[in-house]
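Morning. Coffee machine broken again, so started the prediction first thing and wrote up yesterday's gels while waiting. Chain of 326 residues, entered below exactly as on the submission form.
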Amino acid sequence: MLEFYFPQGGRDTELRAGSADASTPPVWIDLLDPTADERARVEREYGIRVPSREQLEEIESSSRLRMEREQFYLSMPLPFEDDRAAPAPVPLGFILAPALLVTVRFAEIHSFADVRARLKRGELPADSQTIFTTLVEAMVDAAADALEKRSGELASASRRVFAGTEVGGRRMKRLDRSLRQTLTSVGAVGDQLSRIRESLLGLTRIIGFVSETARDRLHRETHGRLETARADLASLTDFETHLSAKTQFLLDAILGLINIEQNDTFKVLTIVSVVGIPPTLIASMYGMNFHNMPELSWPWGYEYGLGVIALSTLAPIAWFKWRGWW
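Came back before lunch.
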């Protein structure tokens, strides 16, 4: 899809070359999952080479951040705000020219929708630098919201993990299934945090490259806003590092608790098997068919055998309790 945004805040998704509207050049061209024809049209009418998706997916710094003549070619992974992120990162590209901004993306981004609405309402000065800066600020705000959401999810998981003890200091409840579900949710948060970090680093590099390379061409207000966004990104990166460390801590804690639960199960099975050995031995001894066994002629021989079996069962249990093993 190809959309044009003009200084007066209007939008025409079917702008035709040579029409009356063509006399007013756009300040922002937004390409959403563009076709080859749409890319060729922008290149032909505005003299801007639009990179393909494969080119935007390249990870070298020289490919993601470069300047050709008066045009900045910038790319980064799809911002963190897209909850439907595919297994492979989806790229986002900016082409910043003195009088025109071209964005190339392959998925919906909430920040773009907000900026488009503000531009259509005439709330923004319609120039390429202002629109670019506003998009960057909107993505930084989205990053903060995404990190706050992940922080809340981790706090909820932490409560579920460490609040599973009974009153009075008794042993922890057996919540193996709940722990496994929490492990899955914490792992998903960790994956989302890695995507957020990748996008934060991409935004930081883009802002730094534009601020340092185009310092003389940027408006003073634009430069100040970009520096503020860079400072915000630095604090968000620190917060993301903290959340990643907390995620790893929770993963280790959950795995440790699952191991404890499994060890408790094996311990019970071991104790049961040990407790069952002495009575089995005694019963097998008195089950032998020998004529000279004196207990066979005792009036209370049967009760005596049962008592010995019961005693051999209770004695190990009492020993385990006394040692604190059970």
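The chain is about 60% helix and 10% strand. Going to sketch it on the whiteboard this afternoon.
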